[in-house]
Specification:
It contains 6 helices and 6 strands; from the N terminus they run βααβαβαβαβαβ. It has helices spanning 35-47, 60-73, 87-96, 114-125, 147-155, 185-190, and strands spanning 8-13, 78-83, 101-103, 130-133, 160-165, 196-201.
Length: 203
């Protein structure tokens, strides 16, 4: 709590040496090792006054503990991790500090049995929401094949946060079938109670 206001960071990405979003086919330019990505990261570091020296982390538990220590020091009540290398891995991370950490599912919406996977992971892994990289999909979010997925989201009343617009800063994805959130018009009409959070990244 800061000045009497509860602070919850609703959009965090847990550090991951592999894929942030398993199942997505992202351009090479978006990989953490690409020159473009490293250049953008350095610009962000300077713009937000992040420390230059980075701490070496041995494993997820150590990373989770450092996150916990940092948010406690800054009086942040909770953090929501929307990605972190897979649903099971992120659920494990959240279990280290369940009083402060919340984990979202982030598997590919068009993957096999995506709706069943989401329902299983909500019920059995304790995941509290769903994150989708809309800009990275080559099928529209209003495709009828996703309606089972929307049904699960709606039934469990979980928040669904969807990335729209540019993905990966300069050199990343800047066009595509789901760049514009208006693609959700039919979905929003058919599921008026669906808890959608639009995550726009304008060019």
């Amino acid at each position: 709590m800061i000045q009497g206001i509860r602070v919850i960071d609703f959009h965090c990405h847990f550090p991951n040496s592999g894929e942030w979003f398993p199942g997505y086919k992202l351009p090479v330019v978006l990989s953490k090792s690409s020159k473009t990505n490293q250049t953008q990261a350095e610009l962000w570091r300077k713009a937000y006054n992040f420390p230059e020296q980075r701490v070496e982390i041995r494993d997820d538990r150590e990373a989770a503990d450092k996150w916990y220590e940092d948010i406690t020091k800054k009086n942040i009540e909770k953090v929501v991790f929307v990605s972190g290398g897979g649903n099971q891995r992120l659920a494990n991370v959240a279990s280290y500090h369940p009083d402060r950490f919340i984990a979202f599912a982030h598997h590919h919406p068009f993957s096999k049995k995506s709706a069943a996977v989401l329902e299983h992971d909500i019920k059995n892994l304790g995941l509290k929401g769903y994150k989708i990289l809309g800009s990275a999909l080559n099928q529209p979010l209003n495709d009828s094949s996703l309606y089972d997925l929307w049904e699960v989201c709606n039934s469990y009343k979980i928040p669904v946060i969807i990335h729209f617009g540019i993905l990966g800063s300069a050199g990343g994805i800047s066009k595509g079938i789901n760049i514009n959130p208006l693609v959700l018009q039919d979905v929003a009409h058919d599921f008026p109670d669906l808890c959608l959070y639009l995550d726009p990244h304008p060019i």
